[in-house]
Amino acid sequence: MNMTSFRGSAMQLFRGLLMLVAAAALLTGCASKFPAAPQSAATPEYNYVIGPGDAVNITVWRNPELSAAVPVRPDGKITTPLVEDLPAMGKDASTLARDIEKALSKYIRDPVVTVVVTGFVGPYSEQIRVIGEAAKPQTLPYSQKMTLLDVMIRVGGITDFADGNGATILRTSEGNKQYSVRLKDLLKLGDVSANVEMRPGDVLIVPQSWF
After folding, report:
1. Do 158 and 106 lie in a common domain?
2. Domain, as residue range, for 171
3. CATH number of the domain that 95 lies in?
4. Structural domains of the chain, count
5. What is the model's pLDDT at position 12?
6. pLDDT average, residue stretch 91-100
7. CB atoms < 10 A from the CB of 50, how many?
8. pTM to 2 decimals?
9. I need a surface site. Which of 24, 69, 183, 192 has the fewest CB within 10 A?
10. Helix (H, G, I), strand (E, B), or coil: what is residue 165?
11. Is residue 211 part of a domain?
12. Cβ 162 vs Cβ 133: under 8 Å
């Protein structure tokens, strides 16, 4: 290959790299067009509802033999003494207690049941999902007033390859509306103004940085 051909190939490679950088910048610019996530997102009327994988402690007053600590099966149901295959998923603790009382009333008079959730996973529709360049992408149970910083602590922050300020929240509770968040400012600069509240069902997407 002569010097002219070599220079021509080098220029083509350089132009290709410029096009790649321009495309990355365009993608980053598109991501930044999402509106900023609102700082407050939690709703005061939120009640935790039971999901598969939760653990519930059932106490039947004056009937210790009917009391039990049981898991919620993957199909969303529980089995307790005298009660088989009772749906629990999507119910709060009080509603499940009333349903158990109704089922037990066939066997004992005026049962009084208390249900306490002791292991929290929550229904799939309310879990927080973290995908992309998080240190430990995973699914988390939602808690009232949970913030972006809480989520980052749970997943161990972001990787060295993450475009932290290009991250977005996909809010399923608002018809998959997407919001931009500033993870780099929050984690690297300690900018607490970048901390926002999460909502049940949010998906946090952390993209890879192009350069």
Report:
1. no
2. 35-45+125-206
3. 3.30.1950.10
4. 3
5. 58
6. 98
7. 26
8. 0.80
9. 192
10. helix
11. no
12. yes
Q: 132 and 91: one domain? A: no
- 51, 56, 62, 65: CA torsion to nearest 10: 110
The H or E element spanning position 132 is strand 128-132
- Encoding tokens for residue 206? 């952390």
Determine the pLDDT at residue 15. Answer: 53
Residue 146 burial (10 A CB sphere; 0-12, 13-18, 19+): buried
Predicted confidence band at 32 (pLDDT cuts at 50, 70, 90)? low
- Torsion angles phi and psi, residue 164, rounded to 5: -60, -40
What are the residues facing 55 on neighbouring strands? 71, 119
Q: What is the pLDDT of residues 172-201, one digit of tens each?
A: 999 999 999 999 999 999 999 999 999 999
Q: Is residue 50 in a domain?
A: no
User: What is the model's pLDDT at position 3?
Assistant: 40
145 and 200 inside one domain:
yes
Instruction: For residue 191, give both structure tokens.
Output: 């900018």
CATH of the domain at 193: 3.10.560.10
User: Residue 210's pLDDT band (boundaries 50, 70, 90)?
Assistant: confident
CA distances from 29 to 25, 33, 196, 197 (A): 6, 7, 21, 24
